[in-house]
Design brief:
- The protein has about 240 residues and is mostly helical.
- About 75% of the residues lie in helices and about 0% in strands.
- It has seven helices and no strands.
- Helix 1 runs antiparallel to helix 2 (about 35-45), helix 2 (about 35-45) packs antiparallel against helix 3 and helix 6 packs antiparallel against helix 7 (about 205-235).
- The radius of gyration is 18 Å and the shape is globular.
- It starts with 5 loop residues before the first helix and ends with a helix.
Length: about 240
């Protein structure tokens, strides 16, 4: 069994705390925040594979990456809804519908994985590439949505929270973008197990820089996200 990296333990622990904060906020807040809070909680679930014994189970590693992809889709849907709300002050639907739809997508994804062959290391790496690509491109869309929302709410008590979310997404862009960069060049930790001949040893500075950006940006994004939800909870009392 591979040794668990201290940064992985810290990442999972901090995202667990941040995920609980966002989920607690969701329970006590209006319907419009439900998708955003639920999506950020799913980020913690998606990072759980980093801890043993799940780290050595290919099927569960694939599940976590699929959950990570669903997380950013749910978050993006939530901010799109909030943008419409900020422009029209209209919010439809009930909170249970968000939970039910998210659970339905998760179950459907698990069924899809279950009826297909057990993922190999190569398949898991491909799924992770898709996950990180979704995060990188949807984060850019979310940053633009946050800019538009902030224009509408900047003079309200919750205005600073959207600057906080902007910082969260910028850090996530660095986190996921650095991983995608390593994966694109075959310099990621999964390359060897997927049978890829890597030339990472020839580029120690670039690999080291991207690896450190990945580590620290992932930690800082969880702290910033948890702090933003704590600010929102106080501002909306």
């Amino acid at each position: 069994m591979a040794q668990v990296d201290v940064f992985d333990v810290m990442r999972v622990g901090l995202w667990f705390i941040a995920g609980l904060i966002s989920l607690y906020f969701s329970v006590g807040s209006a319907r419009i925040w439900t998708s955003i809070s639920t999506g950020f909680f799913l980020v913690f679930i998606s990072e759980g594979y980093l801890l043993a014994p799940w780290e050595s189970n290919q099927a569960l590693m694939a599940v976590h990456s699929v959950v990570g992809t669903i997380a950013v889709l749910v978050i993006t849907h939530g901010f799109m809804e909030y943008y419409v709300f900020a422009r029209t002050l209209e919010s439809g639907g009930a909170k249970w519908e968000v939970y039910a739809l998210t659970a339905g997508v998760l179950v459907a994804s698990m069924v899809f994985l279950a009826i297909n062959p057990t993922p190999t290391a190569t398949v898991v790496r491909h799924i992770r590439i898709v996950e990180n690509a979704c995060w990188v491109f949807l984060v850019v869309i979310n940053l633009d949505l946050l800019r538009k929302i902030h224009v509408q709410v900047r003079d309200t008590p919750i205005g600073p929270a959207f600057r906080g979310f902007g910082a969260v997404f910028f850090l996530i862009f660095l986190w996921r973008g650095s991983v995608l960069y390593l994966q694109a060049y075959g310099w990621d930790a999964d390359a060897a197990s997927a049978g890829i001949v890597t030339d990472a040893a020839q580029f120690p500075f670039r690999v080291g820089l991207a690896t450190n950006v990945n580590r620290f940006a992932s930690l800082l994004s969880s702290v910033t996200m948890g702090g933003t939800f704590l600010f929102l909870a106080r501002a909306m009392r």
